[in-house]
Fold each of these.
Amino acid sequence: MTPAADEHAVEVLKGLLDANDHEALHNREHFERHNVLAVNLMSSPGAGKTALLEATIEALGKDLNIAVVEGDLETENDAERIRAKGVPAIQITTGSACHLDAHMVHDALHELELDDVDVLFIENVGNLVCPASFDLGQHINVALLSTPEGDDKPAKYPVMFRAADLVLVTKSDLLEVLGDFSPDAAERCVRQIANPAPVLKVSAKTGLGMDGWLDWIRREAGSRE
Amino acid sequence: MHELSLCEALIDQVTTIAREQRVSSVSDIYVRVGPLSGVEGPLMRNAFPIAAAGTVADQATLHLEDAGIRVRCEECGAESDAKMNNLVCAACGDWRTTLISGDELILQRVVMGEARV
Ligand SMILES: Nc1nc2c(ncn2[C@@H]2O[C@H](COP(=O)(O)OP(=O)(O)OP(=O)(O)O)[C@@H](O)[C@H]2O)c(=O)[nH]1
Ligand SMILES: [Mg+2]
Ligand SMILES: [Zn+2]
Ligand SMILES: [Zn+2]
Ligand SMILES: [Zn+2]
């Protein structure tokens, strides 16, 4: 559309998420100052985020100081499950029910003693759509894809899976029972959206494939000591 | 969904601009939306009047401009159009591409209404 000659207009070119991005930068400064590795876990509801965290804490809790920010806005259930493992969990209780934003995470950070934390996991709200649009200041995005959901999820939710630095195929103990989930097909979908992220099979239930994930976390945490 | 909070962020930015420009209203707001930004145009359109009510943008028209998806191939260097769930290079078929456009969510331009009296 050509502007009218007498039109008074202002060219802006500013991102709508500027305020969030700014706060995310601030969160990242907190993490850097305290040498904390921040990992954002995203998935559809029930893909196994909390179960993965429970198993991860059991395996790594002795070597690394872990803390968790819980985005389950409706209940304290997930935070209670984490605390039962002897790890601090901050429950985020305000905000929209569909995603976490950088401000909510920032408020939670100030309730934690970050000096005592090596790895901070942020369990995002179970939702494959909007969490990906909101930078929280994390270093790493992990997208969980549980086998009952189907291997074409990365093609259906490209925004989320494009943002992932690591894709975990969770509940992989069910692969045999399900029969129609192909981890290779899931990986092809991830490549098709130009994402080089590793795709790892894990089962929090049986421990299958957990070593790959745990090594990955150890390595990432080690690189920021 | 969070389109309402995005519209509120948009109105905040527009309100600041209107104040700087000393106008009491704005007439047109142009936002560029890439399909890979994660924002749904129709939801944004629905949420806009709710966020705009009683603000400088109360009577404003929201124009959403679709940004096309373009990628640059890291293997052969070609630039090509791509789709949401298929970002491979159209020239050589390699998947190692970089997004040049398609994930933006940008307030581009605001047209002012009446000057403040
Ligand atoms: N078979 C199998 N079931 C699992 C596994 N991990 C989690 N589950 C089951 O999946 C269900 C959901 O697990 P959660 O860990 O609560 O999932 P979540 O992603 O945290 O769920 P929300 O926070 O509600 O989005 C539970 O019934 C778990 O027992 C797994 O590795 N194998
Ligand atoms: Mg959970
Ligand atoms: Zn702070
Ligand atoms: Zn949302
Ligand atoms: Zn190419």
Amino acid sequence: MILDSKIPDGPIAEKWDNHRFSSKLVNPANKRKYKIIVVGSGLAGGAAAATLGELGYNVDCFCYQDSPRRAHSIAAQGGINAAKNYQNDGDSIHRLFYDTVKGGDFRSREANVHRLAQISVNIIDQCVSQGVPFAREYGGLLANRSFGGAQVSRTFYARGQTGQQLLLGAYSALSRQIAAGQVTMHTRHEMLDMVVVGGHAKGIITRNLANGETKAWTADAVLLCTGGYGNAYYLSTNAVGCNVTAAFRAYRHGAGFANPCYTQIHPTCIPVSGDHQSKLTLMSESLRNDGRVWVPREALDCGKFPNDIPESERDYYLERKYPSFGNLAPRDISSRSAKEACDDGRGVGQGGRGVYLDFADAISRLGESTIRERYGNLFQMYERITGENAYKRPMRIYPAIHYTMGGLWVDYNLMTTVPGCFALGEANFSDHGANRLGASALMQGLSDGYFVIPYTVGNYLANTGAGALSPDAPEVKEALEGVRERVDQLTSTKGTRSSRSYHKELGQIMWDFAGMARNEKGLKKAIGDIQDLRGDFHKNLLVTGSNETLNAELERAGRVRDFLEFGELLCRDALERKESCGGHFREEYQTAEGEATRDDENFAHAAVWEYKGKDKTPDRHKEQLNFDNVKLAVRSYK
Amino acid sequence: MNLTLKVWRQSGPEDKGRFESHEIEDVSEDSSFLEMMDQLNELLLSKGIEPVSFDHDCREGICGMCSLNINGFAHGPEDSTTTCQLHMRKFEDGDVITIEPFRARAFPVVRDLIVDRSSFDKIIQAGGYISARTGSAPDGNALPIPKADSDKAMDAAACIGCGACVASCKNASAMLFTSAKAGHLNLLPQGKAEKDKRVVDMVSAMDNAGFGNCRNYGECSAACPKDISLDFIAKLNRDHAKAKLKKLFS
Ligand SMILES: Cc1cc2nc3c(=O)[nH]c(=O)nc-3n(C[C@H](O)[C@H](O)[C@H](O)COP(=O)(O)OP(=O)(O)OC[C@H]3O[C@@H](n4cnc5c(N)ncnc54)[C@H](O)[C@@H]3O)c2cc1C
Ligand code: FES
């Protein structure tokens, strides 16, 4: 596998401009001859499909929900970063670039991150012009808030529903192109395989979830904008339908998968309440602007009503350990600290897996109405789920799987190692290294979709020429048959166990051994356990009903089958990365105080996995990361 | 808690459909309504019965994918709450719960509790956007917008497009949805240029999709999980009348 990152020449601040200028253009009159498949309608896919349609390409867009507006980007709460420096507090493109590289624990590609920081300012302009109702100051100008890992206020937000509003912006632009006939939207369609002909991505195979029909679609390029793989852990803040299938099928066809072990565990989620739990709910990081995190100083106090525990008996552990960032310490660090406190027996709530996030100080300082205005919907959501009123007593929170920094390896053009197959948004690995800073995923999704891909896909198409295959071509038919067989396998196993029970068991293995803290012994055990579980799945799975109708059991079984293979890859990557960095914490590699220890000499690279065949160990390749503009340093938030 | 569930089953759009009754035991009061449905489905599966199909995705009250008519209420009896956020502590041990799909002519049943709400997408395609070509936007702060206007636009934009408004209206009208979507854009200066065309086109797309007329019953707003206000309907009516008048005189 050749990993050519195609980073343009020149000083970092000029690379993107130079690259755009040297990219080939497709003549406006010719654009309609090119067909582009966009899988996904979240921020990345929605923005890409809308923009490519507007440019005149012939776009087919797919999503598994009943409407493109429901992609999980909709759930993002806190905000989106941009280096506007509207607050005049010392922000700049270079600072956002620096914060993101540092926040990612020096495991991302400088050139991509810099481009992201540059484009961030255009994103806000674009969204405002679409009518995104960002929060404003009384003077009518855009308001900002702070997010973890930054000392400037650069986060734009729309109440606690930033993702919803940005997605509705992209969805409205997409709807306009659908009406114009430039984009054909296929809802309730799940991509189950990619068609690769002569080494190039030439189409996809989908299953129509409403009636079970499998079908082939062909195009000149395929864009995978299918989100993250957090649901490999069963419980996560992702939507229930989020899956790795599209990315994993691309991997099976030769697309390198980069850094699958980089998973982000978000420190502020509502704790698990029992075995019925089907997903976890995030309480936005923005709450840490006003909430203070603590646990009782003594384990004996854990059962007490929190308001009865006096100040002197509380341990505000983030403020204690990281005085300069305090409650706004980055996610990986905050999560691990919560785990440590609970491992120490000082956790609160069910099973002792929770810490307090307390608003009492902020309420007495600012008044309840201000807090209500800032976070009302989050407090309401918390009340719905737990039955507790967080204006009167502290919230209970605990870390949960939230975001995946790993993903399909892409070059500077967002193209995977399979020519013609591009990956955008959370589905790629490109910008966040080993840890993503808050409010940066929305930025990346929109940057990829609105501003990067229109140039880079154009360059690819101009170089290859138009020529989508016929859906009746033999290679396409073969791929279609393959998918039909695999779907049939699921309904014909006729065992006794539900796909959900496998998913839960896989999730438990992943959380126990590849969660917040990992070690060699545990990861090896996890790999063996997953292989056993997979073997059992193929023998004992029960899916009722047929594949010719809407069948949710069948959908889940297909996704779980891919997670069962992918989970092993994730553990393998975690095993081979013998250092601690960002969200990847290996217990063997830490300082005496428990801080992560990176190994820049041996691991300043992206690990890229190449599929070698069924039951064969995949190959691990490296893309060396060079830091010419940011000095490699120990990440400190003390 | 132990419950009796009367669930609507319908194998496809052509099937007439019927209620099926199931007993379910040991439901945790901390589980959400949909987690209770998961539990039911695992139970059915273990008996070799096909599980009940229902729509859902985010399970945190924001994607608008979940639906269900629970004991006669869209999204169940709790105010300002989607089905996925409704928790079983709101029910009592021994309850009989009736679960049906959202019912409306413009939302045909796909299977069991799943309905087709693509008519909402059509309304948006008719004009629920501001034509802003990618890359052509002026600076975000070039046009200050009074906070009150922006807040009001956000109130409307909070709509999640779930269709509870339609399902709870006697006439199955989509006025609350349409007015929220149009209102969000019409309230902002960026949306002014296309305002008249927007309201006329969106309203006619709504009529063409088979939604009923609005008679100001107000059930829609009462059922809305996001508390979208009836004021937006009044605003849409005004904007629509103005646009029609202008057309007449131009
Ligand atoms: C609860 C929550 C809160 C968050 N808050 C923030 C925040 O405040 N700020 C921030 O920057 N980031 C936040 N994030 C992260 C951010 O929201 C996501 O990383 C980002 O929105 C992902 O966008 P996307 O377009 O890549 O994927 P998604 O929005 O997940 O879209 C994926 C699309 O792919 C489709 N799809 C998936 N698989 C298939 C398949 N096999 N076939 C067909 N279609 C498929 C889906 O239908 C969907 O349309 C948050 C994430 C979560 C979960
Ligand atoms: S499942 Fe998303 S709103 Fe209920």
